[in-house]
């Protein structure tokens, strides 16, 4: 069976409960739902921030996320996947993105959500700018995020090389 999937990139906020209800409505084969919501922190490296601004490449970003959702569905027996990522100016305390994975068993749902989060942190075509009191800076990729994502690569091949 093919997993039901939804990928959206949007400016407006989303409601996690509504998204979970939509992907599980009428399903009696779902035994596990895992959700992850990324929230804008009020600091970056210990310094207060005013906001994050997220930019993306329309069309390409959706296609890339959909490709990784398909990979997750091929790796694990998923019933459904939802990925929503916001763009634009986001204030501390506001939701940035969410991943929902649904499976008959918890191990698959957790692993798929973890895989998708590592991908979104390292490979999704989004650019993040942090606004602080002294100006704005573009945030660079972190080696620790790349290392975490590397565990999903086929043996002998780093995630960055994929």
Average pLDDT number: 88
Tell me the major beta sheet: 4 strands, mixed
CATH topology: Aldehyde Oxidoreductase, domain 3
The CATH architecture comes to: Alpha-Beta Complex
Number-wise, the strands total 10
Shape: globular
The structure class reads alpha+beta
Percent of residues in beta strands: 35-45%
Q: Unreliable stretches, pLDDT < 50, 5 or more residues?
A: 156-162
Measure the end-to-end span: 27 Å
Q: How many discrete domains? A: 1
CATH class identity: Alpha Beta
List the helices and strands and how they pair.
Blueprint: E1 4-10, H1 16-24, E2 32-39, E3 43-44, E4 47-48, E5 51-56, H2 60-75, E6 78-86, E7 88-90, E8 95-103, H3 106-122, E9 126-132, E10 135-138, H4 143-150
Parallel strand pairs: 1-6
Antiparallel strand pairs: 2-8, 3-4, 5-7, 5-9, 6-8, 9-10
Helix pairs in contact: 2-3, 3-4
Could you walk me through the main structural features you see in this protein, from its secondary elements to its overall organization?
The model is unreliable at 156-162 (pLDDT under 50). It contains four helices and ten strands. Strand 9 and strand 10 (135-138) form a beta hairpin. By secondary structure, the protein is an alpha+beta fold. The longest helix is centred in the C-terminal third of the chain and has 17 residues, at 106-122. Helix 2 packs antiparallel against helix 3 (106-122) and helix 3 (106-122) packs antiparallel against helix 4. 31% of the residues lie in helices and 35% in strands. The protein has one domain (4-141): Alpha-Beta Complex (Aldehyde Oxidoreductase, domain 3). The chain has a four-stranded mixed sheet with strand order 1-6-8-2, sandwiched between helices. A four-stranded antiparallel sheet has the order 7-5-9-10, with no helix packed on it.
């Amino acid at each position: 069976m093919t997993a039901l999937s939804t990928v959206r990139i949007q400016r407006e906020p989303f409601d996690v409960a509504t998204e979970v209800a939509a992907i599980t409505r009428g399903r009696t084969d779902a035994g596990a739902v895992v959700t992850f919501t990324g929230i804008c922190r009020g600091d970056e490296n210990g310094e207060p921030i005013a906001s994050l601004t997220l930019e993306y490449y329309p069309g390409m970003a959706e296609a890339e996320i959909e490709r990784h959702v398909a990979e997750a569905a091929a790796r694990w027996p998923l019933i459904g996947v939802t990925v929503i990522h916001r763009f634009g100016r986001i204030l501390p305390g506001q939701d940035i993105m969410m991943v929902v994975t649904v499976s008959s068993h918890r191990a698959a749902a957790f692993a798929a959500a973890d895989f998708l989060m590592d991908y979104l942190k390292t490979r999704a075509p989004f650019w993040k700018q942090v606004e602080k009191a002294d100006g704005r800076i573009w945030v660079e990729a972190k080696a620790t995020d790349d290392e975490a994502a590397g565990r999903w690569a086929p043996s002998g091949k780093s995630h960055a090389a994929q």
